[in-house]
Amino acid sequence: MALGDRRNNNEPGLPWRPAPRQVMDFFKRRPPFVLMVATGALCTVVLLVFGRLCYGLMLPAMRTGLDLSYSQAANLGTATALGYLLLVMVAGVFAARFGGKQAVMLGLAMVIVGFVGLSRAHELWVLMVLMVLLGMGTAFGYTPLISLLANTYPQRRGAVIGFTTSGVGAGMLLAGMLVPALTEQDIRDGWRHVWEIFAAGGLGVGVLALLFLRNPTRHYAASTAEALGEETAGHASGEEPVFRNPHVINVGLVYGVLGLTYIVQATFMYSYALDAGVPSLTAGHMASTMGMISIFTGPVWGWLSDRIGRANGLVLCMSLALFATALPVLWPSTPFFAAHFVILGMSVSGLFTCVLAASTETVPPHQAAVAVSFVTLFYAIGQLIGPAAAGVLIEWSGGFRTPFAASCAIMLVGVYLCWHTRRHQNYRPAARLPDACQAP
User: Fold this and answer.
1) Could you give the CA distance from residue 416 to residue 200 in angstroms, rounded to a whole number?
2) Model confidence pTM above 0.90
3) Dihedral angle of Cα 404, 408, 409, 414, to the nearest 10 degrees
4) How many other C-beta atoms lie within 10 A of the C-beta of residue 422?
5) Cα–Cα distance between 244 and 76 in angstroms, integer?
């Protein structure tokens, strides 16, 4: 038997096994566009939707099963935001140094451990630790995922980000059908079964990510790592740091408004609908409808913003989100809750898509990951503040209208910030002189 035959185990009668070289070639080849982007969308479902946004659907059942107050339940959401905030920049540095795929895999592992732990935990402090772990996993997985895909297909960045963020809609569609049904069927432990299902889904998506995600080219990763190292040290040579770019700062403020208001909506709007007399299954179907609409609107907004500009896209999306949030504040009844979920489904994916695309438009390509991580800091801070502040307002006012009215006021500021991004959308950073050449 020839050496090649022994290596490949292709002798008749022996099971075929791929040679190590064939395996290495498979992982070096870039999979088709559809496979990579679809895998990215599924990672978004696990990392962002299951790990962060589904908590609002779980909250009523968890609050009842664990006998928590609204403030305690809100603090659990804040713990996730804290974990996200702590590691979002660390995740960017890790991804640049070791690879975006490695960061995504680590993030998936963190959230899977968190899901399994939440399905078993009973003590509040254990729940807090596990929720922090979910936030850390989301930070390590989601931001590097967006940078990885956008930099793999730089000429189709808007479409790639749009299709990837459509995973938010798909995940909310699935969760809106799954969570109310299981929690109604088993009032005591149904929410624990949901976390178990999330863990199983995370394992499946982890296998797909291992097979079909690829890092950008080595040259690009090296230049990004160098940029990240310089930016975090605060002394980039020859280039303006992203934290001095007025367009990136403005986009970050918009992302902060989105983080604060959307997490309040995701955490408490379902509970608000139940409190207003909407049946739980009906409210779950409304959330599913929002998710279904979001699947398609993300790519549409990405395409539209490529033509009308990111600033105009942001203004339209934020204005629609403001209108959607105001409806149940003014008229807390079933038709207006339904309209809220439909209109928000039309706009929220557009906000994510336009913000992430806009954050990289006025920086050099090798600083794109830095810009995404920097604006995501604003988003994480908003998510940290939102649930805790909303929980306090709910306890103080005895209802949900006050926190959502406050959200409307903040979103009005967000509309102005979106409009203001046009002022710097053509900004080009000036090259910095070496320190020895700068004036004293």
Assistant:
1) 42
2) no
3) 130
4) 16
5) 34
